[in-house]
Amino acid sequence: MHPVTSCATLLLLPIAALADNFEFTFPQDDDAKVDLSRTVQVTWEAGDDGRRYTQLDLEWTGETTGGTRFTYSIEKNLTLSSGSYSWDPVNETSALTSGKTVLTDDDDFYFVAKLHNINETVRIEFESDKFPVTGYANISSLAAVQKPGMGLLVLAGLLGSVICMI
Fold first, then answer.
1. Is this prediction's pTM over 0.70?
2. What does UniProt give as the signal peptide span (predicted)?
3. d(CA 48, CA 46)
4. pLDDT of 102-138, one tens digit each?
């Protein structure tokens, strides 16, 4: 074995180890949108983590136009090797609607998989790629929500200047 070959192999080992970890396969790319008015098929590949862990807890995280982050636990103790879960977001969207929550139209949403074995605490977590959502009545641009506030600040500054001049 040549020293150069063994050094190169050692450098590639951490990269190879990462290549076979858990990975969400939907949603995965920048074009993926999740429609909250329909059942969502969340899919994943367990990779080598499928040999180390048997279960996962699935969560959905997002952001409101007010900048508040929220997380809903979707399901616990799913079988990791199943590779998918059909999520009906009706409970989550009902809760968000009852609170008059306005969601952003940006890529501010993602799933979290918490891997573990039966009757054990969570050992490792993975996040999906971030994605926008559709199919919810109260979605708005974060910029549109912030612009009126900026206008009020400018107006307040102008009024303050006028009062000081009087």
1. yes
2. 1-19
3. 6
4. 999 999 999 999 999 999 999 999 999 999 999 999 9
Place of tokens 């279960």: 55
Kindly state the tokens that stand for 56.
């996962």
DSSP letters for the chain: --HHHHHHHHHHHHHHHHHTS-EEEES-STT--EETTS-EEEEEE-TTHHHH--EEEEEEEEEBTTS-EEEEEEEEEEEGGG-EEEE-THHHHHHHHHTT--EESSS-BEEEEEEE-TT----EEEEPPPB-EES-S-EE-HHHHHHHHHHHHHHHHHHHHHHHH-
Q: How far apart (Å, rounded) are the C-alpha atoms in residues 129 and 103? A: 18
- Pull the structure tokens for residue 77: 């103790």
CA distance 87 to 38: 9
Strand partners, 126: 113
Return the number of other C-beta atoms located less than 10 Å from residue 163's C-beta.
8
**Alpha carbon distances (Å) from 45 to 40, 49, 80:** 17, 9, 9
Least Cα distance to 132 among 110, 103, 102, 106 occurs for 106
Environment class of 82 (CB within 10 Å of its CB; exposed 0-12, middle 13-18, buried 19+): exposed
